[in-house]
Write a structure and sequence with these properties.
single chain, alpha/beta, globular, disordered C terminus
Length: 267
């Protein structure tokens, strides 16, 4: 492995993988120096924090995922606020995520989803922390929430909006996450976005174990070591060298989330 490779996986549900420790070891060997692990509900707050405490390369966020809204309890927001306040000075705690809106999944309680989203934006503002956003079929509503609460740092993960919507998020100071979805031949619109958006607006992610890249068999889980091949594929699409894309997107993730400027470098 080339020692100078430094990739940041800006969105990885490491705690949901079959063997998080083995998956992380493979990622480090592949040149993924930093793995950002968002929470989705109070049930995995301890897991993401413990992984970050145990591994120099792992950082975590705390948040309530919009697709979990109907499973969350009435005290979930209070638990999140207490945990985030307790962690605010923890250098491994980056911000509030994974939060957002999902208008694609049918039958979710949208009023409750919007209420939780706005409460978490308020929390991020109160703590002066960035956000990591889940946005499906609700780009305009999420952007409006960011404007309302003055949120200027973070990542819109797995971005799949229009050129105009991308511009709104960029104007608000956010970066846009791209990963396995853009590796499929049919994903021409995503690929065009990745080619044409400003390089300083882009970050890379695997969303492991979700959003597997095109080459992964359906019976094989997506893992963070896939980020190396994803980066090479997207670099080719944009006409950049692998190293140029790796360096730019890693720096963008550092800027977006307040990561250390010298993340863990595998030996």
């Amino acid at each position: 492995m080339t020692a100078s490779i430094r990739l940041v996986d800006s969105h990885c549900h490491l705690d949901y993988l079959h063997d998080p420790e083995a998956s992380l070891a493979l990622a480090l060997e592949a040149g993924v120096s930093t793995v950002v692990v968002p929470a989705v509900s109070p049930e995995n707050f301890d897991r993401v924090q413990t992984l970050a405490e145990r591994h120099e390369a792992v950082f975590y966020l705390l948040g309530l995922h919009p697709c979990y809204v109907d499973r969350l309890k009435d005290d979930s927001l209070a638990i999140l606020k207490a945990r985030a306040l307790a962690a605010r000075d923890d250098p491994k705690f980056l911000g509030i995520g994974e939060i957002g809106l999902d208008h694609f999944v049918p039958d979710l309680n949208r009023d409750r989803m919007h209420s939780f989203f706005h409460a978490q934006l308020q929390l991020a503002r109160d703590l002066d922390k960035p956000v990591v956003l889940h946005v499906r079929a609700a780009q305009d509503q999420v952007a409006a929430g960011l404007r309302r609460y003055g949120i200027r740092r973070g990542i819109a993960h797995a971005f799949n909006g229009s050129d105009v919507q991308a511009g709104r998020f960029i104007d608000l100071g956010l970066r846009l996450g791209f990963g396995g979805a853009a590796t499929f031949a049919r994903a021409t619109r995503l690929q065009r976005l990745f080619r044409e958006l400003p390089l300083e607006a882009l970050v890379l992610e695997t969303d492991s174990p979700d959003i597997a890249p095109a080459w992964l068999p359906k019976d094989q889980q997506n893992e963070p070591h896939q980020l190396r091949r994803i980066a090479q594929t997207l670099a080719d699409q944009r006409g950049l060298s692998f190293m140029a894309l790796a360096q730019a997107t890693s720096q963008n993730a550092i800027n977006a989330l307040g990561l250390p400027h010298h993340p863990h470098q595998p030996q």
